[in-house]
């Protein structure tokens, strides 16, 4: 009776599968929250009270009764009526003309990103991202053995000149860059939005160096200012942009309905891959989102979300101005996050640990979102899920700890 | 304005992603069904009228109102209460003692199988399956570049002596076999069940050659005869069996709730991988299944399914005896399928095409389920989703076509 030596059975890819660097922090927060009231700026999620659960209760009850095949498989790429609605949604909300054939419904935007890895990324390939970028995209693409290089951002998002410079350098070195990944609006973790005037430039650079662009639009519908930002996809005349869509940040992350949209050459492969991977997206969830889109409810939920989160954002910014004078931080016009820069000698990982331990405030170090060492002193603060009446107090405590550590 | 040459961007793995060989047939059936009443033996799914949709309507309405965080993320490996219930379920229905820590909730059994590929399979590795085996498992593991070898079956399922012989041969050739994949009960596509007295032997062989066993239990709960079949997992003393569980075949394939259970060394890696792959299984679906398990409804749904499908199976077998005298076929004690062997000179693919075209009867060639050429004349018939009052007529028409082709 010998137990097998499991490590011997693991694939070489398994070595590339790393634990999420923020998982430990998340566990600590969960443990602490059991005994103390924690003010949390940790999550990257919608406020549960903004999600229209009463409406979902009603709709899902109707749908289970009405749709005979709701408990059975749908096509692997999604219910055709939903794909039609998504095409209409992209037209209405994103100015993108596309066809249902170009759409694959996925388990949130995350699965679309993983699918892109499976279809496009080989070991040794290089991928460019904003620096910092979404930690889970970095993690999941590392499963495919790629190298990831971050491009610096400023207040207006990704810096096109830096992108050009990097691509030029890599091209000279003979490195194969396949794509640029950008969360163009309300980026996670920075909260920054790529300025409209830069967007055309980014597309031109992609064309110049013949790379694809993966545009993650997760936060596109949480725009707090009356500014114009067009999706890269809507401006793309060459078919370089693969669009990753998600209803998660407005309708709820738990539903797990997102999609991949792009050129047929890639989408057809995605459909082929997806069938045996998981058969289809959860069918009752597909019908629920279909009904929400059909009933034109999305816009109302979105407006309520924007109103709620704009208020929370303002509370957070005001509190930062009040309690953290002189600190460097981002001012989001969209999304769910603010970054703050601690003094250079303070490590964000340590800071957030003490903050939780001593001050009952939860935040996530932004460090693992960086592709290099430049984010050691940066902390990500979420405002969407934070409790309105505790934001001021939470930031005050951050100020307290900062004072404690710097004096 | 040049469109990119997309094929240049595809990964080397993308070449391993093949279209499902039964996809074309499925499309043809869908098209035909629009204009004609097709008698279908094609699907591999529960009867929509067995799925308790009224109950789901009620439960999901309650859950959306009651569970505040139902629209938000759950842990990547699933809601902890659901994992507890699944551990209890495995004890009650499968005689397996395990812990919630050893469980990862997945998007149906399919995702568990894909996850096993990601964690364990390297290009060039060899995987053994029953011959024939589930076509989607073959397809998705091919994404990982593995070689698949099928082990012959007889009426009692996989033949242990053949397994031993194959492993001995491969071992002498220096080939690395990582695992045996078995759908031990009510196998898809054969309908066969691995005889209880063979199960111990299969485990001994796995131990002898130091390979793992992936036991796909999708059809375990659809057992039509009062025979004893223990899961390999429950008999495994060494920790060689990775268990793939699914509620799909009883509660509905559309919910997409399955799980992976196994040794911590592998399950921990699965948890790490799964987070960034898709964040979490759909949360309302997790709570729905949780309620079904908590309310002890599973057993009732299962009993109703068994009663319905047993009747359909008997109708199918009787019709085969009546209209296809002398034909070789499998007699399932579990699952959803019967295989029939056409005369050697008739190709199943062609036969099923004419059958649909001329006789309005849909069936799936079993050929792509085989790992070699031996299944060219084999057709898979599903009885679970077939309409009770049309089974006899459908098989009669198969008999008609056979007569037409052989006289």
Automatic annotation (TrEMBL), chains A, B:
Q: Which residues form a coiled coil?
A: none
Query: What Gene Ontology biological process does one annotation of this record name?
Result: alpha-amino acid metabolic process
Q: Please provide the record's keywords in A-Z order.
A: Aminotransferase, Pyridoxal phosphate, Transferase
Record Pfam families: Aminotran_1_2
What region holds the Aminotransferase class I/classII large domain?
Answer: 37-398
Alphabetized InterPro entries for the sequence: Aminotransferase_I/II_large, Class-I_PLP-dep_aminotransf, PyrdxlP-dep_Trfase, PyrdxlP-dep_Trfase_major, PyrdxlP-dep_Trfase_small
What cofactors does the UniProt entry give for this protein?
pyridoxal 5'-phosphate
Report what the protein is called. Answer: PLP-dependent aminotransferase family protein
Q: What is the lineage of its organism?
A: Archaea, Thermoproteota, Thermoprotei, Desulfurococcales, Desulfurococcaceae
């Amino acid at each position: 009776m010998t137990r097998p030596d499991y490590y011997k059975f693991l694939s070489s890819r398994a070595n590339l599968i790393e634990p999420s660097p923020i998982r430990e922090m998340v566990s600590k927060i969960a443990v602490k929250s059991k005994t103390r009231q924690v003010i949390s700026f940790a999550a990257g999620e919608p406020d549960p009270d903004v999600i229209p659960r009463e409406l979902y209760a009603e709709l899902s009850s109707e749908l289970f009764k009405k749709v005979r095949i709701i408990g059975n498989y749908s096509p692997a790429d999604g219910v055709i009526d939903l794909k039609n609605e998504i095409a209409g949604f992209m037209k209405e909300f994103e100015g993108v003309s596309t066809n249902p054939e170009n759409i694959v419904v996925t388990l949130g935007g995350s699965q679309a990103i993983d699918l892109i890895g499976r279809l496009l990324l080989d070991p040794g390939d290089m991928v460019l991202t904003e620096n910092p970028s979404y930690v889970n995209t970095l993690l999941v693409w590392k499963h495919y053995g790629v190298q990831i290089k971050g491009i610096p951002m400023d207040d207006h998002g990704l810096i096109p000149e830096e992108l050009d410079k990097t691509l030029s350098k890599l091209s000279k070195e003979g490195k194969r860059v396949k794509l640029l990944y950008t969360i163009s609006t309300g980026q996670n973790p920075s909260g920054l939005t790529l300025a409209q005037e830069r967007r055309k430039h980014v597309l031109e650079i992609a064309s110049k160096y013949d790379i694809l662009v993966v545009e993650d639009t997760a936060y596109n519908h949480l725009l707090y200012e009356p500014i114009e930002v067009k999706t890269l996809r809507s401006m793309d005349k060459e078919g370089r942009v693969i669009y990753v869509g998600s209803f998660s940040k407005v309708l709820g992350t738990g539903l797990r309905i997102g999609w991949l949209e792009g050129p047929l050459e890639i989408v057809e492969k995605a459909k082929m891959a997806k069938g045996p991977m998981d058969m289809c997206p959860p069918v009752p969830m597909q019908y629920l989102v279909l009904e929400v889109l059909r009933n034109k409810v999305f816009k109302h939920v979105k407006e309520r979300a924007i109103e709620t989160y704009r208020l929370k954002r303002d509370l957070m910014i005001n509190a930062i101005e009040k309690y953290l004078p002189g600190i460097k931080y981002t001012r989001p016009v969209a999304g769910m996050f603010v970054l703050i820069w601690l003094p250079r000698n303070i490590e964000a990982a340590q800071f957030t640990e003490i903050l939780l331990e001593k001050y009952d405030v939860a935040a996530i170090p932004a460090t693992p979102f960086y592709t290099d060492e430049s984010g050691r002193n940066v902390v990500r603060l979420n405002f969407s899920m934070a409790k309105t009446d505790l934001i001021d107090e939470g930031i005050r405590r951050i100020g307290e700890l900062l004072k404690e550590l710097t004096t």
